[in-house]
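Quick one, probably user error.
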């Protein structure tokens, strides 16, 4: 009997609640019902808003609590929390005896192979993808999931002890997690998702859950150049990255050469200039991935991917060139620091499309980089006033600023303002939830609009 079968067997006489009928929870609900477990689905959406999902769930024979008061009746023995619902909303249920868990936590509990968990404010998607590509180049069987790829829980039965699971983890997923991966990595930590977390400290506490429950022999990779991650009180096997200092154990940069050090002995990996994807931030991402794969891959595997990998979709993704103007999709840039990294990737001033959903994070850091790297700024969405004010607060010259009502208008405005040789980049510095399900949907619309020009 597998660990998952044992777990489901322990729920046979339990009432189970699942909050949210989203992408990750739909397979979970199907698996629970297939095991004969009684399930109640709680979702803020109405049956009409759930659409096909409601029909599918009805066929499975679940009970429903839907609408604005969907959390009021949460009293099941075991409750699977969707990442979008903060644990504080379930504190009453927990105090009454409910066990609060999640689809991701269950995966960690039953996964038969080593797990590599990657989190951080910026760079985690690129780092996760690079890690996966290097491992696959080395011949490893890799299962990619979390915030990237498909839900992992339904694939547990396909996994063996010799496989590897590479998981990108958000602060939402990590809150309350009682498990940590065998290899954990934190790229950096800057203010983010303060519409969800009560403050930056809670955000940091959520992120550090990625290593808080590691066991002896597990490994943690930290970016020592980041103000927050370098101050974390980490125990266990530490293997770090730095552009600013030589390390005894880790991956570091010196005179544009990347080195790998183990027990005080350093060896050359490669020149940083050989990394194919542009931008100083991608040197960090590559160094982090190189640190993560130690023990599984050769240096040749790392170099092969570093020199050929073209980048992640929606991350400074080249869309097309039209009338001498190059268009780039950087929809994954949902915070100011990500947008700053995108702007630093170009040698020239760009036409920037920015703005979106307000996560209640500060935008003052964005003003100077925009004035330095942007020739024309086009803003849309709820954060447009914050971004505009951050730019206008900078002394000296400012780029022309246009505020428009939608992404559609922003793209057409950019095309009219651009001249041959210009770069237009959508790098919102904001989340997408004002109009879109996620940043991928936003990026896809941008690409569609650009191709329609």
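Nope, works fine. Designed sequence:
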């Amino acid at each position: 009997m597998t660990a998952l079968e044992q777990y489901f067997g322990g729920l046979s006489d339990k009432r189970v609640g699942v909050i949210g009928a989203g992408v990750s929870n739909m397979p979970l609900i199907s698996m629970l019902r297939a095991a004969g477990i009684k399930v109640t689905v709680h979702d803020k959406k109405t049956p009409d808003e759930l659409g096909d999902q409601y029909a599918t769930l009805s066929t499975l024979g679940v009970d429903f609590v839907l609408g604005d008061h969907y959390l009021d009746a949460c009293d099941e023995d075991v409750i699977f929390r969707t990442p979008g619902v903060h644990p504080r909303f379930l504190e009453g249920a927990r105090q009454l005896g409910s066990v609060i868990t999640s689809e991701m936590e269950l995966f960690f509990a039953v996964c038969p192979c080593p797990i590599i968990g990657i989190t951080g404010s910026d760079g985690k998607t690129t780092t996760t993808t690079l890690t996966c590509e290097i491992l696959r180049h080395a011949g490893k069987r890799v299962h990619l999931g979390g915030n990237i790829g498909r839900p992992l829980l339904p694939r547990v039965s396909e996994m063996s002890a010799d496989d590897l699971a590479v998981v990108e983890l958000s602060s939402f997923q990590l809150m309350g997690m009682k498990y940590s991966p065998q290899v954990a990595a934190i790229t950096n930590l800057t203010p983010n998702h303060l519409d969800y977390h009560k403050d930056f400290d809670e955000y940091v506490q959520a992120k550090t859950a990625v290593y808080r429950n590691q066991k002896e022999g597990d490994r943690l990779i930290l970016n020592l150049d980041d103000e927050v991650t370098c101050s974390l009180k980490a125990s266990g096997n530490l293997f770090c990255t730095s552009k600013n200092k030589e390390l005894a154990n880790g991956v570091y940069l010196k005179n544009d050469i990347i080195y790998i050090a183990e027990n005080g002995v350093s060896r050359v990996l490669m020149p940083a200039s050989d990394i194919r994807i542009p931008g100083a931030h991608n040197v960090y991402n590559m160094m982090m991935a190189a640190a993560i794969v130690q023990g599984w891959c050769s240096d040749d595997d790392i170099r092969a991917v570093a020199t050929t990998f073209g980048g992640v979709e929606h991350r400074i993704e080249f869309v097309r060139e039209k009338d001498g103007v190059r268009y780039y999709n950087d929809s994954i840039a949902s915070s100011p620091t990500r947008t700053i990294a995108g702007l630093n990737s170009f040698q020239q001033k760009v036409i920037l499309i920015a703005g979106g959903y307000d996560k209640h994070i500060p935008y003052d850091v964005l003003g100077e980089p925009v004035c330095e790297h942007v020739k024309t700024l086009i803003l849309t969405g709820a954060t447009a006033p914050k971004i505009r004010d951050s730019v206008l607060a900078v002394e000296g010259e400012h780029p022309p600023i246009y505020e428009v009502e939608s992404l559609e208008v922003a793209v057409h405005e950019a095309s009219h303002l651009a001249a041959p040789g210009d770069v237009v980049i959508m790098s919102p510095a904001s989340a997408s939830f004002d109009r879109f399900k996620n940043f991928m949907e936003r990026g896809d619309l941008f690409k569609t609009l650009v191709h329609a020009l």
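The chain has three domains: 3-101, 106-306, 317-451.
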